[in-house]
TrEMBL record:
Domain Ketosynthase family 3 (KS3): 3-424
Pathway assigned to this chain's UniProt record: Lipid metabolism; fatty acid biosynthesis
Family of the protein in this entry: Belongs to the thiolase-like superfamily. Beta-ketoacyl-ACP synthases family.
Keyword S-adenosyl-L-methionine: no
The protein's name in its UniProt record: Beta-ketoacyl-[acyl-carrier-protein] synthase family protein
A GO cellular component entry from the record: cytosol
A molecular-function term among this protein's GO annotations: 3-oxoacyl-[acyl-carrier-protein] synthase activity
Short name of one Pfam family: Ketoacyl-synt_C
Organism of derivation: Pseudomonas leptonychotis
Keyword vocabulary terms for this entry: Transferase
Record has Transferase as a keyword: yes
UniProt xrefs under CDD domains: KAS_I_II (cd00834)
Amino acid sequence: MRAREVYVTGYGLVAPTVLDAQSLFQRICEKRSCVREHPLFVELGFPNAAAGFIDDQQWQQLRAGFDENPSAQPRQTVLAEYVAKQALQHAGLQPEAFSQVASGLFLGANKYCANSQDLDLACMCLDERGSLDLDRFLQRQERVEHPFARRVDQQTLHLAKRLGIRDHISTHSDACAAGTVAIGSAYRAIERGEIDLAICGAVELMANELPYYMFNSLGALCQKADVPAQQQSRPFMRDRSGFVLSEGAALIILESKQHAERRNAKPLGRVLGYANFCESEKMTSSSRDGSKYEHCMEAAIEDAGLLRYAIQHVNTHGTSTQVNDSCEAHALKRLFGDLLDGMTLSANKSALGHSLAGSGAIEAVLSLISLRDGVLLPTLNYDAQGAEFPELRFLSEPLKQSINIVLSNSFGFGGVNSSIVLGRA
């Protein structure tokens, strides 16, 4: 029996500088970056203060839209609820719709990283040997929330309760691929007939001190502090020197075709195929010839029941690191060969920075808008003359062009590779 068709009927998004998907799409069309100098990084004296971050003004609006006391919940829960409300409104759904049919929640989120205030508090609770006295730490009155309230699945728990979801609830912590894995997992559950309705995507808030230290120690962050913040994310350029840390969230409503038609929902797009593999190459990079990435993309296209020539546009992972961009470029050349002459490509992280788990979900939403509106986004800071792989047709200006199929890639640390094929409604 042929697997069921899966429709996209709504989405919500928050990214640095913007509070909705259409504003982000328009901003990138205008070639305006979401990357700025992070005041916190400047205050701490970091050598490079560039980041994509949700600012105080945005947080005021996010908290104002929270139904409970926002100070009693961790930030990622406040963000998740705001984006979920957007997605439901866009899909024309009420929260109770999820409890009335077999439904699921699939949310990408990586570990919560302590900030400097958390570390200061922990330092005050060290015993004579320099070890953390956990009892003393838990008993301190200064904290504004329970120290374990920010576990990785806290926002998943909150949304599941708010929406009354009981059939399938999962949190995906698959590094930079987590958002795409969450969407792909929801697609699989609907395709197989396990559920009829899903909300899926990712929430990531790691644009703070500890992630900066961690990724900088790996040499993964941009090393060119003398370059303006908005120009530092330079995917596929010869002079790229690392990614820019970012944050954000996007959630998508998926429905079986039958469920969407029963409620007369207007589809915004379709999920056609998906593939996910964990390679055993290296913690921070893939096979240098691109073969592992090629295998993932090819499997997603095959899962969609398509041939390679059907792919018209690729939304690349494009982190702006030397190794990742090179691996992905070789994979694209291996898989598509001469077909690349008629294909367009984009790298959204050029405008957004790298929001880790959030990136795949945000990029999926941007791809869906391109399919719906027939506008392909430019890659900021890209110039074919300075590109390492000029044979790849990355757009440096927005292009008005109707397309039917997009392949979107997410390749994460730890060897988690994920590709998803999206189609026009």
